[in-house]
Amino acid sequence: MSVIEAIRSNHARLTDIRRDLHAHPELAYAEHRTAELVATHLEALGLEVHRGVGRTGVVGVVRAGTGMRAIGLRADMDALPMQERNTFSHQSRHAGCMHACGHDGHTTMLLAAADVLARGEGFDGTVYLIFQPAEEGEAGAQAMIDDGLFERFPMESVFGMHNWPGMPEGHFAVHSGPAMASADRYDITVMGYGAHAAMPHLGKDPVVAAAALVQALQTITSRTLDPLDAAVVSTTLFHAGEAYNVIPDRAQLSGTVRAFLPEVRDTVEARLRQICAGIAATHGVSVDIEYRHGYPATINTASEAACCAEVAAGLVGSDKVQTDARPSMGAEDFAFFLQHKPGCYVWIGNGAGEGGCMLHNPNYDFNDDIIPVGGAYWVELVKRLLPA
């Protein structure tokens, strides 16, 4: 029996696990029920289990043979602070909390792989099953690293996988190089001098200065960067004033910066600060900037990406593996792992994404039919990297 057939024989049970996780979503660093479900499942397989890694993370250890090599496989566990609109039986039972990104499915696919790997057949070495908390904006990967992940569980490389709506079910996309962008945030306060709206000459209008700033920031990507260097600068919040006839004394802007290359990320930040200084001087106001670095870009290493593409092609056929897919401007904290270890983060097709079944959408749901494919991919990757 092939690996994928073995997992399919347990598909009903795995689907029940995935839907149970979907019905009981938990936010970043609150994945207590989820973590315990994972740990109990792994212990039932006879595996060594470590709880509380990075606060609520779980690491399972699978050993086979006498090999000294080791790799890590990662799945994320947390949900999003969203209200679900689905009405199926496994809809979220927690108001304002939803698995809208498929982490319930990612967790289940790695558990499916654990079922097979626990037999200790077909590989020689150690596999660390990393069930990570707090991917959604709270840097759970970094928390696990800070808690000694790579010292406690020494691995030579690390791998991740995310479902991708809009890609055909069970297909794969593997990027050599950037797969996801970095994600930074900025908060800008423009401080002027308030006045009566009928007498603007008596004040220094921060609204006009802030409006000019919103426009000027768009020139970073259009006039500062090389057109072939992708980046996004989006001002998404603009707050000022409380009355129709009052020019306020301040305006506040917030937004996000995305980039694939570290040098482009640095250029955008530097130019943003220069523009703020210029607008301040032009309008006679002061500008305060708080620029916060978030997740770095997720950059796959070439040899690991090539290996993952070959494994996926061996599983589903080369015609179902994209190696030229465009990377996403979305961000992913798996990037922190890749700053320490070589590895690769792949996408697995979740289906057409019809009816709002897109990531971070209140009508999203993970496609249970891809659980066997995703689980088998993990097992075949282990067999390829840790051959018996």
Automatic annotation (TrEMBL):
<feature type="domain" description="Peptidase M20 dimerisation">
    <location>
        <begin position="185"/>
        <end position="277"/>
    </location>
</feature>
<feature type="binding site">
    <location>
        <position position="103"/>
    </location>
    <ligand>
        <name>Mn(2+)</name>
    </ligand>
</feature>
<keyword id="KW-0479">Metal-binding</keyword>
<feature type="binding site">
    <location>
        <position position="360"/>
    </location>
    <ligand>
        <name>Mn(2+)</name>
    </ligand>
</feature>
<dbReference type="InterPro" id="IPR002933">
    <property type="entry name" value="Peptidase_M20"/>
</dbReference>
<keyword id="KW-0464">Manganese</keyword>
<feature type="binding site">
    <location>
        <position position="162"/>
    </location>
    <ligand>
        <name>Mn(2+)</name>
    </ligand>
</feature>
<keyword id="KW-0378">Hydrolase</keyword>
<dbReference type="Pfam" id="PF07687">
    <property type="entry name" value="M20_dimer"/>
</dbReference>
<dbReference type="InterPro" id="IPR011650">
    <property type="entry name" value="Peptidase_M20_dimer"/>
</dbReference>
<dbReference type="InterPro" id="IPR017439">
    <property type="entry name" value="Amidohydrolase"/>
</dbReference>
<feature type="binding site">
    <location>
        <position position="136"/>
    </location>
    <ligand>
        <name>Mn(2+)</name>
    </ligand>
</feature>
<dbReference type="Pfam" id="PF01546">
    <property type="entry name" value="Peptidase_M20"/>
</dbReference>
<dbReference type="InterPro" id="IPR036264">
    <property type="entry name" value="Bact_exopeptidase_dim_dom"/>
</dbReference>
<dbReference type="GO" id="GO:0046872">
    <property type="term" value="F:metal ion binding"/>
</dbReference>
<dbReference type="GO" id="GO:0019877">
    <property type="term" value="P:diaminopimelate biosynthetic process"/>
</dbReference>
<protein>
    <submittedName>
        <fullName>Amidohydrolase</fullName>
    </submittedName>
</protein>
<dbReference type="GO" id="GO:0050118">
    <property type="term" value="F:N-acetyldiaminopimelate deacetylase activity"/>
</dbReference>
<feature type="binding site">
    <location>
        <position position="101"/>
    </location>
    <ligand>
        <name>Mn(2+)</name>
    </ligand>
</feature>
